[in-house]
TrEMBL record, chain B:
<protein>
    <submittedName>
        <fullName>Lipid-transfer protein</fullName>
    </submittedName>
</protein>
<dbReference type="GO" id="GO:0003988">
    <property type="term" value="F:acetyl-CoA C-acyltransferase activity"/>
</dbReference>
<dbReference type="InterPro" id="IPR002155">
    <property type="entry name" value="Thiolase"/>
</dbReference>
<dbReference type="InterPro" id="IPR016039">
    <property type="entry name" value="Thiolase-like"/>
</dbReference>
Length: 172, 356
């Protein structure tokens, strides 16, 4: 090559791959039930079995299939939380907002959802919350059917009892 | 060095679309069956677990972690993963045992290829500067390889069709999990239109969903379990350059060298299970391995009868194990491949164990 070319220091190579994603039998059941406004978990058919919400089809602790369906409450307890101050690109929610690991009454494992109608400085582990649902006509196969969880006037749950409540709520 | 025994092997059916079934739901039944075969209760009863899968198959980051939900990891287990075919998870597990860090291991592989466009997805394993940006799919690359062989007179289209015909017949006779099986004569194959010339659709492995699992152990442990076992007497794997232009695509030097190092020629080869996703590649591999007419090649139908991406390599070892346990063979060779046009190859020699 006679003339010196400019040094190439990088190239742009966008990748586009299309997938038909399927959630699986157990998560599909969970999503179908959400369309009916019900939170559904699964557990093994054993007396001491843990209830997983949302279910993946297996009990991760034992590796065995979760064959039993269990409806859980839309009341929950804060297991942990984060106050997000940095905007996430593409996310419509204005910071600061609260993302929390919530354990629904009757479930033994948490899921992640938003908290709102709350004083962020007052959010704490063990706090009691309840789902605020979208209008029924907007329900889809989606966790977005629940807009967020808001605090309710119930006593806090001691840390070692989180994830061990019956569906009826904390019996004091 | 400790001798390695295969004690159990199970696989799911190879299906074109597992539908509303996630990876955990694919894996769990297969693991349950392999525990039963070995006579153990769960992954807690082995010292090490290693899986093979690729997140690009299902298009979800860290999807392989979800696979662990099928294991029962409470209390914690020693667990590892390769972003490769599970034949390499087997390799890792063998090293673990040989180093004395474990006496037994569970190896499993799974792939749900149906959600994506597999040949395009696999183009992203090419080198990221020159080839991947051109989106060269696996079928086109294999077609180029077959064309080179035809042009050089190394094979004929009839040779390729014979591979296909034998695969379908073998799958019908020996493989209850096969996706494609039945009578398909050489002339039937040749009568098909070409798809990506010179390849016909029948020359190309199907896209399959499924999983497979194996339990290996030291020979001492296998004897303690009291189950029939086979011994892996040699295993090696070698990779060639990613630069396609620098490879002789009509040959597989990496397979030949891995076979030498695994000791393929140290005895009679009764059976060979070769991971040849395209018909002409079975011929390349048979030649590189130095197989004679006496060897039964791909009695399961091979991957032309069903290709569980990321599990098919492990399944080749499992199929040789099955033949030996069934008393149909005393010594066999299993081969696994990865990458375009047989870039990376693993060869294992499996032999009959002593009477349990």
């Amino acid at each position: 090559m006679s003339e010196e070319n400019e040094m190439i220091t990088g190239i742009e190579v966008p990748i586009y791959l299309k997938y038909n994603f399927t959630a699986g039998a157990a998560p599909a059941r969970f999503l179908s039930q959400l369309k009916n406004g019900v939170l559904t978990g699964q557990r093994r058919a054993a007396p001491d079995a843990q209830v997983y919400v949302p279910p993946r089809g297996s009990c991760p602790a034992t590796g065995l299939p979760t064959e039993e369906e269990v409806n859980v409450a839309d009341k929950a307890t804060v297991q942990s939380f984060t106050i997000v101050h940095i905007p996430i690109p593409g996310n419509a929610i204005e910071p600061p907002f609260v993302v929390a690991n919530l354990v629904a009454d009757g479930a033994n494992i948490s899921f992640i959802h938003l908290m709102s109608e709350c004083d962020n400085a007052e959010v704490r582990i063990g706090q009691r919350v309840q789902a605020v649902w979208k209008p029924e006509e907007e329900w889809d196969y989606s966790m977005d059917n629940i807009k967020y969880f808001k605090p309710i006037e119930e006593p806090d749950v001691p840390v070692d009892e989180i994830g061990k409540l019956p569906v009826t709520g904390l019996e004091v | 060095m400790k001798e390695i025994a295969i004690v159990g092997y199970q696989q799911s059916d190879a299906v074109s679309d597992a539908g509303a079934c996630n990876e955990v739901e694919l894996i769990m039944p297969v693991l349950g069956r392999v525990y039963e075969q070995v006579g153990i209760g769960s992954a807690q009863d082995v010292d090490f677990v290693c899986s093979g899968s690729c997140d690009y198959m299902q298009g979800a980051a860290f999807a392989f972690v979800m696979g662990v939900d099928a294991l029962g990891a409470v209390p914690p287990i020693k667990e590892s993963h390769v972003e490769m075919d599970a034949a390499w998870a087997l390799y890792e597990s063998i090293l673990k045992i040989k180093m004395g860090h474990a006496d037994s291991a569970l190896v499993y592989g799974f792939g749900k290829s149906s959600p994506g466009e597999l040949p395009i997805v696999l183009s992203q394993q090419l080198d990221p500067y020159y080839l991947a940006p051109q989106w060269i799919d696996t079928i086109s690359l294999a077609a180029m390889q077959a064309r080179m062989m035809l042009d050089q007179g190394l094979i004929t289209e009839r040779d390729m069709a014979e591979v296909v015909s034998a695969s379908r017949r073998n799958a019908m006779e020996n493989n209850p999990h096969a996706q494609l099986k039945g009578e398909l004569s050489v002339d039937d194959v040749l009568a098909q239109d070409t798809f990506v010339s010179p390849l016909r659709k029948a020359d190309i492995c199907p896209i399959s969903d499924g999983a497979s699992a194996m339990v290996i152990a030291t020979v001492e442990k296998a004897k303690a379990w009291g189950k029939p076992y086979a011994v892996i007497s040699g295993i090696d794997h070698i990779i060639e350059t990613h630069n396609m232009g620098m490879r002789d695509l009509t040959d597989s030097p990496s397979t030949r060298k891995a076979a030498e190092r695994a000791g393929v020629s140290n005895g009679k080869v009764d059976v060979a299970e070769l991971y040849a996703p395209f018909s002409h590649q079975e011929i390349i591999l048979s030649r590189a391995l130095g197989l004679s007419e006496d060897t039964s090649v791909n009695p399961s139908g091979g991957v032309l009868a069903g290709n569980l991406m990321m599990a098919s390599g492990l399944s080749r070892v499992g199929e040789v194990f099955n033949r030996i346990i069934a008393g149909e063979a005393e010594r066999g060779v299993a081969h696994a491949t990865s990458g375009p046009c047989l870039q990376h190859n693993l060869v294992a020699v499996v032999e009959k164990g002593e009477k349990a």
